[in-house]
Amino acid sequence: MKGKSFACTWTSQSDLSSAILQRVASASVTVDTQLISSIGKGVLVFAAVAPDDTSKEIESMAAKVIKMKMWPDDAGGNWKRSVQDIHGEILCISQFTLLASTKKTKPDFHGAAGGEQARELYDHFVTKVQELYEKDKVKNGVFQAMMQVNLQNDGPVTLEIQTNPPSAQEKDKDKIDANVGKQSEYELPAELLD
After folding, report:
1. Looking at 22, 46, 96, 163, which residue is catalytic?
2. Of 118, 97, 88, 102, the residue nearest 22 (C-alpha)
3. Positions of the chain with pLDDT under 50
4. Cα–Cα distance between 106 and 4 in angstroms, integer?
5. Are 193 and 7 in contact (CB under 8 A)?
6. Can you name the residues that pair with 186 across neighbouring β-strands?
7. Would residue 9 show up in a list of annotated catalytic residues for this protein?
8. pLDDT for 17
9. Which residues is 45 bridged to in the sheet?
10. What pLDDT is stored for residue 162 in this prediction?
Protein backbone atom coordinates (compact mmCIF):
# COMPACT_ATOMS: atom_id res chain seq x y z
CA MET A 1 0.00 0.00 0.00
CA LYS A 2 1.38 3.37 -1.00
CA GLY A 3 1.81 6.13 1.59
CA LYS A 4 0.01 9.46 1.52
CA SER A 5 1.64 12.86 1.25
CA PHE A 6 1.08 15.75 3.60
CA ALA A 7 2.43 19.29 3.83
CA CYS A 8 4.01 20.68 6.96
CA THR A 9 4.91 24.29 7.76
CA TRP A 10 7.35 24.83 10.63
CA THR A 11 6.53 27.45 13.22
CA SER A 12 8.78 29.02 15.81
CA GLN A 13 8.49 30.71 19.16
CA SER A 14 9.06 34.46 19.23
CA ASP A 15 12.53 35.92 19.44
CA LEU A 16 14.17 36.70 22.75
CA SER A 17 14.63 40.16 24.17
CA SER A 18 18.06 41.31 23.25
CA ALA A 19 20.48 44.10 24.07
CA ILE A 20 23.87 45.05 22.71
CA LEU A 21 26.21 46.55 25.29
CA GLN A 22 29.15 48.61 24.12
CA ARG A 23 31.84 49.76 26.53
CA VAL A 24 32.42 53.38 25.58
CA ALA A 25 34.71 56.29 26.41
CA SER A 26 31.80 58.52 25.33
CA ALA A 27 28.51 58.35 23.42
CA SER A 28 25.76 60.71 22.32
CA VAL A 29 22.47 60.69 20.46
CA THR A 30 20.96 63.41 18.28
CA VAL A 31 17.59 63.74 16.56
CA ASP A 32 17.21 66.26 13.72
CA THR A 33 20.64 67.70 14.60
CA GLN A 34 19.52 68.37 18.21
CA LEU A 35 21.61 66.75 20.95
CA ILE A 36 19.26 64.62 23.06
CA SER A 37 21.66 62.88 25.46
CA SER A 38 25.35 62.25 25.99
CA ILE A 39 27.52 60.28 28.38
CA GLY A 40 31.18 59.92 29.25
CA LYS A 41 32.78 56.61 30.24
CA GLY A 42 30.20 53.87 30.55
CA VAL A 43 27.86 51.65 28.57
CA LEU A 44 25.88 52.32 25.40
CA VAL A 45 22.88 49.98 25.36
CA PHE A 46 20.89 49.14 22.21
CA ALA A 47 17.76 47.36 23.48
CA ALA A 48 14.97 45.49 21.66
CA VAL A 49 11.67 44.16 22.99
CA ALA A 50 10.16 40.88 21.74
CA PRO A 51 6.39 40.28 21.38
CA ASP A 52 6.16 37.81 24.28
CA ASP A 53 8.17 39.92 26.72
CA THR A 54 6.79 40.79 30.12
CA SER A 55 8.09 43.08 32.83
CA LYS A 56 9.95 40.04 34.23
CA GLU A 57 12.18 39.73 31.12
CA ILE A 58 12.67 43.49 30.93
CA GLU A 59 13.72 43.70 34.58
CA SER A 60 16.13 40.80 34.08
CA MET A 61 17.73 42.60 31.13
CA ALA A 62 18.01 45.84 33.15
CA ALA A 63 19.78 44.00 35.98
CA LYS A 64 22.23 42.43 33.53
CA VAL A 65 23.12 45.86 32.11
CA ILE A 66 24.04 47.11 35.58
CA LYS A 67 25.90 43.96 36.68
CA MET A 68 27.78 42.97 33.49
CA LYS A 69 31.53 42.89 34.16
CA MET A 70 33.08 44.85 31.29
CA TRP A 71 36.12 46.60 32.84
CA PRO A 72 39.39 45.43 34.38
CA ASP A 73 40.10 45.88 38.08
CA ASP A 74 42.93 48.03 39.45
CA ALA A 75 45.27 45.01 39.40
CA GLY A 76 44.66 44.56 35.66
CA GLY A 77 42.39 41.53 35.94
CA ASN A 78 40.02 41.57 32.97
CA TRP A 79 36.21 41.42 33.21
CA LYS A 80 36.12 42.28 36.91
CA ARG A 81 34.09 45.51 37.23
CA SER A 82 30.63 46.62 36.12
CA VAL A 83 29.45 50.08 35.08
CA GLN A 84 28.23 50.49 38.66
CA ASP A 85 31.67 49.57 40.02
CA ILE A 86 33.40 52.22 37.90
CA HIS A 87 30.68 54.86 38.56
CA GLY A 88 30.14 55.14 34.80
CA GLU A 89 27.15 56.34 32.83
CA ILE A 90 24.58 54.51 30.71
CA LEU A 91 22.94 55.61 27.45
CA CYS A 92 19.91 53.53 26.42
CA ILE A 93 18.73 53.46 22.80
CA SER A 94 15.65 51.57 21.56
CA GLN A 95 16.55 49.49 18.51
CA PHE A 96 13.92 47.06 17.23
CA THR A 97 16.19 46.09 14.33
CA LEU A 98 18.17 43.85 16.72
CA LEU A 99 15.37 41.31 16.43
CA ALA A 100 15.28 41.29 12.63
CA SER A 101 15.30 38.03 10.72
CA THR A 102 17.94 38.26 8.00
CA LYS A 103 17.35 34.94 6.28
CA LYS A 104 16.61 36.92 3.12
CA THR A 105 18.22 40.10 1.87
CA LYS A 106 15.28 42.21 3.05
CA PRO A 107 15.12 42.23 6.87
CA ASP A 108 11.91 40.99 8.50
CA PHE A 109 11.00 42.73 11.76
CA HIS A 110 8.14 40.51 12.93
CA GLY A 111 10.36 39.25 15.77
CA ALA A 112 10.15 42.65 17.48
CA ALA A 113 7.25 43.91 19.55
CA GLY A 114 5.36 46.77 17.97
CA GLY A 115 3.47 49.88 18.88
CA GLU A 116 2.35 50.67 22.39
CA GLN A 117 3.53 47.34 23.85
CA ALA A 118 7.10 48.03 22.72
CA ARG A 119 6.99 51.60 24.04
CA GLU A 120 5.65 50.57 27.46
CA LEU A 121 8.19 47.79 27.92
CA TYR A 122 11.12 49.85 26.66
CA ASP A 123 10.16 52.73 28.98
CA HIS A 124 9.92 50.19 31.82
CA PHE A 125 13.42 48.97 30.92
CA VAL A 126 14.90 52.49 31.13
CA THR A 127 13.05 53.21 34.38
CA LYS A 128 14.30 49.94 35.89
CA VAL A 129 17.92 50.69 34.89
CA GLN A 130 17.53 54.10 36.59
CA GLU A 131 16.05 52.48 39.72
CA LEU A 132 18.81 49.87 39.93
CA TYR A 133 21.57 52.43 39.43
CA GLU A 134 21.53 56.22 39.71
CA LYS A 135 18.81 58.05 37.80
CA ASP A 136 21.03 60.99 36.81
CA LYS A 137 23.64 58.63 35.30
CA VAL A 138 21.16 56.89 32.98
CA LYS A 139 20.28 58.72 29.75
CA ASN A 140 17.89 57.85 26.95
CA GLY A 141 17.31 58.39 23.25
CA VAL A 142 13.91 59.06 21.66
CA PHE A 143 11.66 56.05 21.13
CA GLN A 144 10.75 55.46 17.43
CA ALA A 145 12.79 58.44 16.24
CA MET A 146 15.45 58.39 13.54
CA MET A 147 18.51 58.88 15.72
CA GLN A 148 22.15 59.50 15.01
CA VAL A 149 24.23 57.70 17.62
CA ASN A 150 27.88 58.59 18.01
CA LEU A 151 30.24 56.59 20.15
CA GLN A 152 33.86 56.04 20.96
CA ASN A 153 34.04 52.31 21.67
CA ASP A 154 36.54 51.49 24.40
CA GLY A 155 38.41 48.29 23.55
CA PRO A 156 36.44 47.64 21.43
CA VAL A 157 34.13 45.72 23.76
CA THR A 158 30.69 44.76 22.45
CA LEU A 159 28.52 42.13 24.15
CA GLU A 160 25.07 40.75 23.41
CA ILE A 161 22.78 39.84 26.28
CA GLN A 162 19.45 38.04 26.14
CA THR A 163 16.83 37.74 28.82
CA ASN A 164 16.37 34.01 28.26
CA PRO A 165 19.51 32.55 26.69
CA PRO A 166 18.85 29.25 24.89
CA SER A 167 19.46 26.03 26.80
CA ALA A 168 21.30 23.07 25.26
CA GLN A 169 17.91 21.57 24.29
CA GLU A 170 16.88 24.78 22.57
CA LYS A 171 20.18 24.90 20.68
CA ASP A 172 19.43 21.41 19.32
CA LYS A 173 15.94 22.62 18.44
CA ASP A 174 17.54 25.45 16.42
CA LYS A 175 18.72 22.84 13.93
CA ILE A 176 15.07 22.04 13.27
CA ASP A 177 14.09 25.71 13.33
CA ALA A 178 16.36 26.35 10.36
CA ASN A 179 13.31 25.28 8.36
CA VAL A 180 10.92 27.69 10.10
CA GLY A 181 8.45 29.16 7.64
CA LYS A 182 9.34 26.66 4.92
CA GLN A 183 6.71 24.29 3.65
CA SER A 184 7.83 20.77 2.92
CA GLU A 185 6.02 17.71 1.63
CA TYR A 186 6.59 14.33 3.22
CA GLU A 187 5.36 10.85 2.35
CA LEU A 188 4.45 8.64 5.30
CA PRO A 189 4.04 4.86 5.20
CA ALA A 190 0.37 3.88 4.96
CA GLU A 191 0.46 2.02 8.30
CA LEU A 192 1.23 5.29 10.11
CA LEU A 193 -1.78 6.99 8.59
CA ASP A 194 -4.38 4.48 9.77
Report:
1. 96
2. 88
3. 1-14, 171, 175-176, 179, 181-189, 192-194
4. 36
5. no
6. 6
7. no
8. 79
9. 21, 92
10. 84
